[in-house]
Amino acid sequence: MAALAPITHFDVCNGLVIEKPQAEQLVAQFGSPLMVLDCDLIRTQYRALQSALPNVDLHYALKPLPHPAVVTTLLAEGAYFDLATNGEVDLVQSVGVPSERTIQTHPIKRDIDISHALAYGCNVFVVDNLNEVEKFEKYKDQVELLVRVSFPNPEVLADLSKKFGCLPEDAVTLIQHAFELGIRIKGLSFHVGSQTKSGVKYADAISKCHHIMMAVINAGLPALSTLDIGGGFPVKYTPEVPNIADFCAPIRDALAKLPETVRVIAEPGRFIVATAVTNIASVMGQAVRGGKTWYYLDDGLYGSFSGLMFDEAKYQIDSALTTGERFMSVLAGPTCDSIDVIREEIMLPKLENGDLIISTMMGAYTSCTATDFNFFKRATTVVLNETAVNELIVSA
Ligand SMILES: *Cc1c(COP(=O)(O)O)cnc(C)c1O
């Protein structure tokens, strides 16, 4: 633990901004590359989404950044948690999250996954087909299930409805089967896809789920009490992404039409964490090739920038040097693989070896998909403001 000069300013839309002296101080203290996680921005994002979706219980989906500091920060904010794997169960358990604040939402599970979550005390699970429902027959006195419904969204980067979810027209039959097996179905869930472009996608899915809920009652089955509207809330990688309050306006309108007895929950991942992490990497070496200077960093596509392959997110990448003439340059990662190039074309000042590159908006789907290919060590995470707002404590 060490005291650190205050981060001078940050811009919620564009992520944590770290100035050159501060970046140099962090690298001197903790080495390079770094992922700097500011828990104050986790709080800011959580509160922004909560005020955009009042009366919706936000379950942070651990998948984009499964870090204990994020979990403890959100727990103190009153958040709930969306778990998908045994590792995520172990993480929330290790930091003391009460199990009744969690749900397990992986649509396809082994028996060991079900029993592991149950042993912790998490007893809400997601299913999307009869084979999966039948896995719960032996646990029927302990569990309540959500049925995941598929609403395809071909325009998003990750259309999760391709891989998971039952067709809306098959939902009632599936619920009927579960009922016959004596298994309680608590409600419906969906995920419209990550970094979704318009809140209207959710509004459409909510109204279709409302129809399914009415059809369930008409079929003489017990009424559903929960609607889980999933994750997918977008962050401003680019300026045209709307702010979250505006984005959620159609969602609020659609939710207002549901019966008041329905508890609405959501599973935000990216929105909560994307802005909170800034990457600091160092120039290892340089060469002029084809008239352009190539700068080789100590972090790259097989490390913190893996999202450039898996996620296509648009990080904001710049030199810590803000002055000086700029030249068209290439920014490459450290490994010996030719695809390990972060930017083919980027305007940068003339850099020396050891100079720093600072990239913002790197909290979601970055370090969690990093590898240590070629034995290049993954970036060290440095946590700021973990315990309380404005407390200047760092823990590596
Ligand atoms: C990945 C995932 C999330 C989080 O999605 P974001 O786009 O990061 O908000 C939520 N729920 C489920 C089931 C997921 O698989």
UniProtKB/TrEMBL annotation:
SUPFAM superfamilies: Alanine racemase C-terminal domain-like, PLP-binding barrel. Gene3D superfamilies: Alanine racemase, Lyase, Ornithine Decarboxylase, Chain A, domain 1. Keywords: Lyase, Pyridoxal phosphate. Its cofactor is pyridoxal 5'-phosphate. Residues 275-363 form the Orn/DAP/Arg decarboxylase 2 C-terminal domain. The active site is at 336 (proton donor). The modification N6-(pyridoxal phosphate)lysine is found at residue 63. Pfam families: Orn_Arg_deC_N, Orn_DAP_Arg_deC. Residues 41-274 form the Orn/DAP/Arg decarboxylase 2 N-terminal domain. GO terms for molecular function: ornithine decarboxylase activity. InterPro entries: Ala_racemase/Decarboxylase_C, De-COase2_C, De-COase2_N, Orn/DAP/Arg_de-COase, Orn_de-COase, PLP-binding_barrel. One of its GO terms (biological process) is putrescine biosynthetic process from arginine, via ornithine. One of its GO terms (cellular component) is cytoplasm. Belongs to the Orn/Lys/Arg decarboxylase class-II family. PANTHER family: ARGININE/DIAMINOPIMELATE/ORNITHINE DECARBOXYLASE (PTHR11482), ORNITHINE DECARBOXYLASE 1-RELATED (PTHR11482:SF6). This is Ornithine decarboxylase. It comes from Pseudoalteromonas piratica. The lineage of its organism: Bacteria, Pseudomonadati, Pseudomonadota, Gammaproteobacteria, Alteromonadales.
